[in-house]
Write the structure tokens for this entry.
Amino acid sequence: MHKYMFHKLNEFLRYVIDRFTPVHQLDIAIEEMSELTKEICKYKRGFDNREKIIEEMADVFIMLRQLKLIFNITDKELHNAELNKIKRLREHMKEGD
């Protein structure tokens, strides 16, 4: 086991960011999102790759957590942005009716 013990996920992710640098982790985030995109494209072409999609989604979720730390985004800020996006989606759906 690694010599560092982390009691909270954010502590560990902050350690990762500090060790590899924020710029490097931004590149990794882009790579992970690209890998998820690739697996979705494969699924659309008829591949049975549900497990790979789950694996890549997990990677993206981890990187999204790191992006929150890198950009100092609070849960409240993210929640408010989600609510605004959902509101716009609802309005868009009403326009289509």
Q: What stands out?
A: The mean pLDDT is 94. Residues 22-44 form the longest helix (23 residues).
